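Researcher: I've been going back and forth with a colleague about how Class II aldolase/adducin family protein might be arranged in three dimensions. Neither of us has a model we trust, so I'd like an independent prediction. The organism is Paracraurococcus lichenis, in case that matters for your notes. Sequence below.
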Amino acid sequence: MRLASTDMTDAEWQTRCDLAAMYHICNHLGWTDLINTHMSARVPGEPEHFLINRYGEMFDEVTASSLVKMDLAGNVIGDQARFNTAGFTIHSGVYKARPDANCVLHTHTRAGGGVALMRRGLRPISQDALHVLDDVVYHDYGVPATQEECDALGVSCATGSCVILLNHGLLTLGETIHGAFMRLYMLERACEVELMARSLDEPPVMIEPYIVERAAARMKKLRATPEYGLLEFQGLVRTVDRNGDKYRC
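Model: Here is an independent structure prediction for Class II aldolase/adducin family protein. You can compare it with whatever you and your colleague have in mind.
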C-alpha cells in the first residue's frame, strides 16, 4: 500500500520500495549490524534529497514509508524522524562528491571489517576480486559524524565506487540501487575469499597481471551499463517476497 502523500511522485515511491527491499535483502544475506549500518538512495528528480533508514529500526522492519527523506544539509523533509548522524555524514559526503551516485550502501560485515584492517587488503587472487579490484579505493578512518570526515570521504570516493573504509567496513555507490548492490556483493565475496586465503599455510596463486588488466577493462564496461546487477537484484527481491517480507507499505 502506497504511503499517503499528495506530493510524492511515482518515481520516489518506486525508489522507496526498491530501497526498502534492499534492506530486507541485506537482512536475508546476513549483512546486518543490529541498527548500526545504513543504505540510502537519492530521490529521482531531487538531487539534493535522499532517503535513508529511520534510526532504531532493524533491517527487516524497514518499509517504503518508514524511510526518512533528508537534504544534503542534514534537514529532515516532511515527517520528522530520527536518523543516524554518522550515517548522514557518510551518505551526504558521497552524494556531494559524486553527482552520478544515486545509491550508497554501507556495511560492517566480518569479512569486510577483516580486510579493512589491512592497508591494501585485496589482492588479485580470485575471480570475485577481479569484478571490483580496478574500482577499489581505501579510505582512512576518520572521526565519525564530523564535517571533516564528510569532506574526506568525498575525496576518497571521487576515484572509485567500491570503498574499503579502513578499520571500519565497506561502502559502494552506483547510479542505480541494483548497481550499487552488485558492487557490494562482489566486494563482500572478494573479502571473504581474501580472508580465507590468509588463513592457509601457503601463499595463494596470484592471477597474471595481463589477465587482471583485461578483466578490469571488461568490468569497467559492464559496471557502466544500466543493467549491471539488475537480474541479481530482481532475483533477491523475489526471494524476500517468497519469505513473506512486508516492505511495500
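Researcher: What would you highlight for our discussion?
Model: I'd start with this: The two ends are 5 Å apart (CA to CA). After that, consider the following. The longest strand covers residues 46-52.
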